[in-house]
Design goal:
Layout: H1 2-10, H2 12-36, H3 44-72, H4 74-88, E1 94-95, H5 97-110, E2 126-127, H6 131-168, H7 176-196
Antiparallel strand pairs: 1-2
Length: about 200
């Protein structure tokens, strides 16, 4: 949740794009429900469920867009880490885990948003020349896994939301396929009645 707060502070464009993506997802969600349930009538509970689903999807989409932006700027962060390392160590110096943690803290002080994504990395056995690239790779790897988890959360919310919305629809509504089957049965029954009438 704090990551969302910092994205709101440092990358408002991510918020706009995240909300737009969530709106598109909700439009597709409604389209599929309407397509499956003929003339579906949403109850007040359906709208409440939809509003809650939109809120959850918006949060996840904002985090996904913010994460993509971080991945896109990883090269810039790598350059900044290189400057910090070059100013304190020779290229061939091996950087200890404690020294790497100090470097990470400096980066986090400059870019607070990264504290949620790079703070847990453990870096040891790298030279000063290798460390910036190792940190950037770790950040990219973590962000991909982070985005994957956000997508899974979105899918989970959509599945639960779909089940709840379907249960909240008016009871006199029936699925489109079932309605088509019933209509075909009525036509067949009517044909049998016509064929059984005595000819004059």
């Amino acid at each position: 949740m704090w990551a969302l707060y910092d994205i709101l502070r440092y990358s408002f464009s991510s918020v706009i794009w995240g909300i737009l993506i969530a709106v598109a997802c909700m439009a597709l969600f409604v389209f599929l429900i309407k397509g499956w349930y003929k003339d579906a009538t949403f109850s007040p509970i359906s709208y409440i469920i939809g509003a809650v689903l939109f809120l959850f999807l918006s949060i996840q989409c904002i985090l996904i867009v913010g994460s993509l932006k971080i991945i896109d700027t990883t090269d810039y962060y790598e350059t900044e880490i290189s400057r910090i390392v070059d100013s304190a160590y020779d290229a061939a110096d091996e950087v200890t885990m404690g020294q790497a943690d100090d470097i990470i803290q400096v980066i986090i002080d400059r870019f607070p948003l990264l504290q949620y994504y790079i703070g847990g990395g453990e870096f040891s056995g790298f030279t000063a020349k290798e460390l910036p690239h190792a940190m950037a790779d770790e950040l990219r790897s973590f962000m991909r896994w982070y985005i994957f988890r956000r997508i899974l959360w979105c899918l989970g919310f959509v599945i639960v939301g779909a089940v709840c919305v379907i249960r909240s629809l008016s009871k006199n509504r029936i699925p489109l396929r079932q309605s088509e089957r019933l209509q075909r049965q009525r036509v067949q029954t009517e044909r049998r009645r016509v064929s059984r009438k005595p000819r004059r």
